[in-house]
Amino acid sequence: MDDPITQETPATFRSPPRILIPKLVKSRDNWKAKANQRNSALKKAQISNRDLSHSRNRWKQRAQDAEQHLRLVQQQLEQTQRQLEQSRGEVALLQAQEGKNFIS
Question: What DSSP assignment string belongs to 35-74?
Fold first, then answer.
């Protein structure tokens, strides 16, 4: 079983620590900066998504309210038109009765 993973070998570096440590620190700092940048971009996208969702819901509600108002106005229009036709019929009936009374 000469598995290199299970064998514990001490890490041996050829470069001295005074050279390795600054490079490792710089690498870590770059990684952290990149992670912070990604986190801020994610947060920005989440906020944008939230705002767009609220806006879309607001517009949807406004459109539904407008459709409901339109249906109500159309019903009122139809009712008024029926009343108008009924009134015209009554007027025609009264004129016909008045014409008979006037001739007699």
Answer: HHHHHHHHHHHHHHHHHHHHHHHHHHHHHHHHHHHHHHHH
Provide the number of structural domains found in the chain.
1
Residue 55 in any domain: the answer is yes
Its domain, for residue 27, covers: 19-94
Q: What is the pLDDT of residues 31-44, one digit of tens each?
A: 999 999 999 999 99
Assigned domain for 51 exists: yes
Contact 13, 20 (CB under 8 A): yes
6, 12, 13, 23, 103 from 3: Cα distances, Å:
6, 18, 21, 30, 125
Non-local (6+) Cβ contacts of 20 within 8 A are 13
State pTM to two decimals.
0.54
